[in-house]
Automatic annotation (TrEMBL):
Reaction catalysis annotation: [(1->4)-alpha-D-glucosyl](n) + phosphate = [(1->4)-alpha-D-glucosyl](n-1) + alpha-D-glucose 1-phosphate
Keywords for the protein's UniProt record, in alphabetical order: Carbohydrate metabolism, Glycosyltransferase, Pyridoxal phosphate, Transferase
Function statement: Phosphorylase is an important allosteric enzyme in carbohydrate metabolism. Enzymes from different sources differ in their regulatory mechanisms and in their natural substrates. However, all known phosphorylases share catalytic and structural properties.
Name this polypeptide is given: Alpha-1,4 glucan phosphorylase
EC top class named in words: transferase
PANTHER family: GLYCOGEN PHOSPHORYLASE, GLYCOGEN PHOSPHORYLASE, LIVER FORM
Cofactor: pyridoxal 5'-phosphate
Similarity-based family: Belongs to the glycogen phosphorylase family.
Length: 830
């Protein structure tokens, strides 16, 4: 039995308990109470971790009234809820954001000082919850932040992985993965709710039977089940008292162990089932945009969406709610294909458990889902073999088959029995194995389908799902991604934030287009001077961090050139590396006077999926080249490469505000959007980039003069691909490229060891799937333009300020407004 244990009209039930007083004294008291009574230590004997946990819980107390009030207000109003279904949330540290949202930064600093503690040191203790791989997971975290800030009712549903994205270390320059035990030292931000666990079924078979009403019905007879235990996290809006909920599910065995086996002495066998069930939420799959189609991953996907739907119907909706009206109360947003199994799950609930007619159920289901596609890579569009799906979720497979039959009948009817088209559009693929195309299922069911940047949405319509956009042109829309300015400007770049507020006043942090008002300041020499001082301060902060974190000593006074993102061939870290090698050669040659070149430090940050061979080779090669250049006295002070390990949200927050140059050099037509690109522009870095993803919109907004564009456009790429791309020809025809590759292949850039470069060089010369070589000359030329511009300090600063002033569009608040208008038909309160 769940639910309130006493009459909700009872006086005490109506108002949340009063929180601690909002002053230094109140904060200190609560902090010491937490330390003494929850951590169980006196201040004098407490460790840093004790202090961090007590501080986190103290801040949490200040958010709880807001959370309780927000929940009550939303229930009373019967608000439509946005149910964001995402297998990943790359949250980053919670304490900084909670302090900012609650407006407690100054009070906390003072209070800690009174206790003889340093709030910054405590903040740095937090291990970030890394429950995502990269852009997609971070986007989900930005979106829930914006919805809370805009006071929109949203529940973010996801998975509480016990181990998030692995911690990256380097051994001899090669990536070695270490488990990320983010929960090990305590998790002060989450609230477990074991009494609201729901049962999730798997396996078994289906049966037909005749219901009491004489109707033919189907029931699923599952073979095993697990418990899904919700943990809720707070999602505070920025200084508006609103606190939304993130509901993450953790798997727990239904029966802890088999007592009979245990008593017979077979201890291992007795707990086997438990281990098996609890594996479901043990670890995040570390592939970004390249799913491996493993059974456990399908279990994860079904587990969290089934738990979320059940929980919503059972606990969020009023008890007697008529499910025919479900679309009035929920819009489930499918964050890529990972949660798409939710569609047949809702059908199953309505038809098998609530006696809906099939068509009636489909009508409701269609209205409850919208689908966001985040990719253009064919290998990232998930398919599930029917063997596997039938074994794990037999009823769902039947439902998908029936949906597909109905759908294909419509296609044949509308397109004159066009069988070829029907086969192309089918939810079921026949080769190489019979499998369900989750993107097709999602597209057929969803009310709206969106891409994540203008170019991406266009290519989605024209190339990925052309038949569907022909059939339903109005179904397709675009919402360009965005990032939260609270975390990625205000927290990450306090110096610039202060300067901006001084210039244009408060208010821009929740109305980012107001950054436009900075434009005139680009022509103000005194302001430029101060802007540069902020950048210099940010670089110094980065130098300190890398010194302590990685033992890396960045040189001073360099152009800081940064490429941070997942390691993926389409993103072309290898192109950046070839440029570095070419710069190194230029410094060693007699062609130029080294003193006349722009001193440059290149910083890489990237994790590779553990099973992605070429990505890992690229990491090892970058590290080998970095070591060689670092050891070469001849280029000291002119060129450096740094590759700090374990790039994550926390590192990004220090790295991005320090950057001068942002590397966004993917092969055109491959990067759906990118969101790092937006963070850099908002922090006053200039972009060197291809005409890809959201780069296109960044360039349109900041202006051609403030963006270094290079490389083939998407149509040109397609043309070259069709013609047959031969990397060897490019190599032979570009002397500078040839020289860089030969140098690399010879081992001269890798401490004399040519084997280090072999895999990457061979791949570039023989296949070069992402055409790095074809864009090399254009890239080097664009980099020369970068150097020329950087030499003119005032012109560079002017461009940097204009990048900030014109990037307000890339706030995730704007993205959310677009979802509300174009997709959810809900309006924001603020
Ligand atoms: N890998 C895209 O590749 C986009 C994010 C968020 C990605 C990236 O360009 O910015 O999503 N796609 O929309 C997937 O994860 C499938 C990503 O992060």
């Amino acid at each position: 039995v769940t639910g309130p244990q006493f009459e909700p009209t009872h006086e005490r039930a109506l108002t949340p308990a009063v929180g601690p007083a909002r002053d230094v004294d109140g904060f200190v008291r609560q902090f010491l109470r937490e330390l003494n009574y929850t951590q169980g230590v006196p201040l004098s004997r407490s460790t840093l971790n004790d202090q961090y946990l007590a501080l986190a819980r103290t801040v949490r107390h200040y958010l709880m009234q807001g959370w309780i009030r927000t929940g009550k207000r939303r229930r009373d109003a019967g608000d439509k809820v946005i149910g964001y279904l995402s297998a990943e949330y790359l949250l980053g540290r919670q304490l900084d954001n909670a302090l900012l949202a609650a407006g407690l930064e100054d009070i906390a600093r003072e209070a800690m000082k009174e206790c003889g503690l340093d709030v910054d040191l405590l903040r740095s203790q937090e291990i970030e919850p890394g429950l995502g791989n990269g852009g997609l997971g971070r986007l989900a975290a930005c979106f829930v932040d914006s919805l809370a800030t805009m006071d929109v009712s949203c529940i973010g549903y996801g998975i509480r992985y016990e181990y998030g994205i692995f911690k990256q270390t380097f051994e001899d320059g090669r990536q070695v993965e270490v488990p990320d035990s983010w929960l090990a030292l305590g998790s002060p931000w989450e609230f477990p709710q074991p009494d609201r666990a729901v049962q999730i079924d798997f396996g078994g078979h289906t049966e037909r039977y005749t219901g009491d009403d004489g109707r033919e019905r189907t029931r699923w007879v599952p073979a095993w089940d697990v418990q899904a235990v919700p943990y809720h996290l707070l999602v505070p809006g920025y200084r508006n008292g609103v606190v939304n909920t993130l509901r993450l599910w953790s798997a727990k065995a239904t029966n802890a162990f088999d007592l009979q086996l245990f008593n017979q002495g077979d201890y291992a066998e007795a707990v086997r089932a438990q281990t098996f069930a609890e594996n479901i939420t043990k670890v995040l799959y570390p592939e970004d945009s390249t799913p491996q189609g493993r059974e456990l991953r399908l279990q994860q996907q079904y587990f969290f969406v089934a738990a979320s739907i059940k929980d919503f119907i059972r606990h969020t909706l009023p008890a007697d709610f008529d499910l025919h009206r479900l679309p009035e109360r929920i819009a489930f947003q499918l964050n890529d294909t990972h949660p798409v199994i939710a569609i047949p799950e809702l059908m199953r609930i309505l038809v098998d458990e609530h006696d809906f007619e099939w068509d009636e159920a489909w009508d409701v289901t269609k209205q409850c889902f919208d689908y966001t596609c985040h990719t253009l890579l064919p290998e990232a569009l998930e398919v599930w073999p029917v063997d596997l799906l039938g074994r794990l979720l037999p009823r769902h497979l039947e439902i998908v088959y029936r949906l597909n039959e109905d759908f294909l009948a419509r296609v044949r009817e509308q397109f004159d029995g066009d069988e070829v088209r029907a086969r192309r559009m089918s939810m079921v693929q026949e080769n190489p194995v019979r499998a369900i195309r989750m993107a097709h299922l999602a597209t057929v069911a969803a009310t709206k389908v969106n891409g994540v940047a203008e170019l991406h949405s266009q290519l989605l319509r024209d190339k990925v799902l052309p038949d569907f956009s022909e059939m339903w042109p109005d179904k397709f829309t675009n919402v360009t991604n965005g990032v939260t300015p609270r975390r990625f400007v205000r927290i990450a770049n306090p110096g610039m934030s202060e300067l901006v507020t001084e210039a244009i006043g408060e208010g821009w942090l929740t109305d980012l287009e107001r950054l436009r008002e900075l434009e005139p300041f680009a022509d103000d020499a005194a302001f430029r001077e101060r802007f540069r001082a902020v950048k210099a301060g940010n670089k110094e902060r980065l130098r300190q961090l890398l010194h302590h974190r990685d033992g890396i000593d960045l040189p001073e006074g360099h152009l800081l050139d940064v490429m941070v993102k997942r390691l993926h061939e389409y993103k072309r870290q290898s192109l950046k590396l070839l440029h570095v090698v070419s710069l190194y050669q230029r410094l060693l040659s007699d062609e130029v006077d080294p003193e006349s070149t722009t001193p440059r430090t290149v910083v890489f940050g990237a994790k590779a999926a553990p099973g992605y061979f070429m990505a890992k080779e690229t990491i090892a090669l970058i590290n080998a080249v970095a070591a060689t250049i670092d050891a070469d006295e001849r280029v000291a002070g002119r060129l450096a490469i740094a590759f700090p390990a374990n790039y994550n949200v926390t590192l990004a927050e220090t790295l991005i505000p320090a950057a001068d140059l942002s590397e966004q050099i993917s092969l055109a037509g491959k990067e759906a959007s990118g969101t790092g690109n937006m963070k850099f522009a908002l922090n006053g870095a200039l972009t060197i980039g291809t005409d890809d993803g959201a780069n296109v919109e960044i360039r349109q907004l900041v202006g051609d003069d403030n963006f270094f564009l290079f490389g083939m456009t998407e149509p040109r790429v397609a043309e070259l691909q069709a013609k047959g791309y031969v990397p060897g020809d490019v190599y032979a025809s570009s002397p500078r490229l040839k020289s860089a590759i030969d140098f690399l292949a010879s081992g001269e850039a890798t401490g004399g060891d040519p084997s280090r470069a072999a895999a990457v060089v061979d791949d570039l010369l023989s296949s070069d799937r992402f055409m790095a070589l074809a864009d090399f000359d254009a890239y080097v030329e664009a980099q020369e333009k970068v150097e020329a511009t950087y030499a003119d300090t005032e012109a560079w600063t002017r461009s940097a300020i204009l990048n900030v002033a014109r990037s307000g569009f890339f706030s995730s608040d704007r993205s959310m407004r677009d979802y509300l208008d174009r997709i959810w038909n809900v309006s924001a309160r603020s």
